[in-house]
């Protein structure tokens, strides 16, 4: 809690069904490389899937645009988001 | 002289049982001989077979996304006939035994991790396997050649079975074989197959520790403030800048990387109060904010000019400009050091 708002971080996102699905999808798609940006990528992906259950490529590009990945894992991130969306259906 | 020393570490664990680890020290001795480099000397690393069956493989190179904390464990675990689901990679500490067997120093780079350590990690796995088999053979009073191994289990000729974990302590007392038979390529179970990365989970649940998470007693945090243009020197006015709450003024000789600063052209700010920052505070963006404050103080609130495009600039400068824009100052350091 910060003030009267609850805050969920990467450490706690696994307790959320969408968060758990995204983490599992990230692992099964071998998304991570160095891992430095992936906490943020996962949090953004969870926020996206909560807003749009079945995101199109343009939704993914727009909503994930704030997270940069120096390893260039974008292709697998997109796959993993779609796989998580499929699994949550 | 090539002799083989084996250190044994058997220590009680909090959970009960023993951790038996093997430490092949041939490389250290080899390096004391006349030809310190480019020798095909035997492996040197730690393998920890824990009482719960977990096999910890120390990798002598940093994992930074290239996959080496999966690749080298695959190589070792294949020769060891380990249960892959029980393999956990761990970064080896800085020590002579973890030097690159080809280059002769401990490093990662040049796309050489697997090429340089393939034989090393195979032999390490095969020797550990031979010692586990020897321990089982001794227990069952059979010949080692009568035993087979699979998935972290030794099987004897009369159907006996023993898990690696229960043999580890005894195996650690067995002599290290001077040479060992390696598998034929057709016998590989793991090498050449596509396996999921072993470092995914900690990188997906926030438990992974990065360099930024390091916190030592009295540690100070230095921040590089990059100049807005290439090859720019710190001005007299800039050298007097202080940032409230972040110590200062900037020092150009406050780190061992001082030699790189003229090239980078930026001040290093060393914080007197940085020791008060916990890793959590640093991760909260405090240091980023401080960097922004430095930028504001040094260059005003106007936006930075575009990096000029110079015909003759070196690759290092090109890369530096790019990472500069991303704010990844560590890469700049490395680049500048080269």
Structure notes:
The complex is a heterodimer of chains A (89) and B (338). The longest helix of chain A is centred in the last third of the chain and has 15 residues, at 74-88. With 89 residues, chain A is an all-alpha fold. In chain A, α1 crosses α4. Chain A has a single domain (13-88), classed as [2Fe-2S]-binding domain (DNA polymerase, domain 1, Orthogonal Bundle), CATH 1.10.150.120. Chain A is globular and about 35 Å long. Chain A has four helices and no strands. With 338 residues, chain B is of the alpha+beta class. Chain B has two domains: 6-204, Aldehyde oxidase/xanthine dehydrogenase, molybdopterin binding domain (Aldehyde Oxidoreductase, domain 4, 2-Layer Sandwich), CATH 3.30.365.10; 211-337, no CATH class. Chain B is 32% helix and 13% strand. Chain B is built from nine helices and ten strands. Chain B has helices spanning 26-32, 68-80, 113-140, 164-171, 200-204, 261-264, 279-299, 315-326, 329-337; strands at residues 6-12, 18-24, 46-49, 55-59, 87-91, 148-150, 153-155, 161-163, 222-224, 268-270. In chain B, the strands form three sheets. Chain B has a five-stranded mixed sheet with strand order 1-2-3-4-5, covered by helices on one side. A three-stranded antiparallel sheet of chain B has the order 6-7-8. In chain B, α2 runs parallel beside α3 (113-140) and α8 packs antiparallel against α9. The longest helix of chain B is centred in the middle third of the chain and has 28 residues, at 113-140. The two termini of chain B are 36 Å apart. The A-B interface holds A 9-11, 13-14, 23, 26-28, 30-36, 38-39, 42, 68, 70-71 and B 63-67, 196-197, 199-208, 210, 326, 328.
